[in-house]
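Render this sequence as a predicted structure.
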Amino acid sequence: MKSIALKWVYCGLVALASLWPMSARAAGDEAAKDGPAKFAVATIKPSTPDEPTLVVLIKGNRLTATGTIVELMKYADGVHPSQVVGGPEWMRTMRFDIVADPGTEKRPTSDESKTMVQTLLEDRFHLTEHEEQRELPVFVLVKAKSGPKLTATKDKPEGLPWVSHGPGGLTAHNASTTDLAKFLQRFVTDKPVVDQTGVAGRYDMDLEWAPDDLPSGMSAAMKEAVAALPSLYTAIQEQLGLKLEATKQRVPVMVIDHLEMPGEN
């Protein structure tokens, strides 16, 4: 089934995103010691209504992004939208087009890019925030009764994890179960995901499930194939030997203290 259905589900390739705000900022700050801490040049303007929700592209050294402030924080800080508290309503609804260049010959790393987006939000939107612990609805990732069904990675263990994803499919390589939780939180679930499996090591993982919304233009045969796929929760148990459980738990949240519309470029 996977060889049929996954032909249409995968639509993106991204690097690892940190799960919690403090860890994301710490990683970015550490990376910034040897790389640029801010963009040399950046233009910001309101997005047109027909542009898609958050798209971040890095071509050469230049970063282009389209999204709301919360979506940009999701990229830069690794937070789930439910972990962003307070602030004006427009930060969740108004989208911006950003084109930014670090002005360096060397291409920034993923962590450096995230740090520069954080700094851009602080400099141009005058964003200030602080972290608190609050109880939120979350998913915890745990072992299923059958035990983990994970394949040890064929990639170099010291390499970065990576993921490809789309509606109804996610493939992670050289990834830990904590990385999997981060990927599920960022691309799939409507709640933060916390890894409580206790499983060590790095693995190559494939997930395939029936998405809630099917892409338009699918053939009848493809729709039939997708309809035969399990739900996300069943797929995680059957294909990975893990389980998502809904609960409430205290997690870090970013509380917005101040935010302004950006000034002229």
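Summary. DSSP finds eight helices and 13 strands in the chain. The first strand starts at residue 12 and ends at 15.
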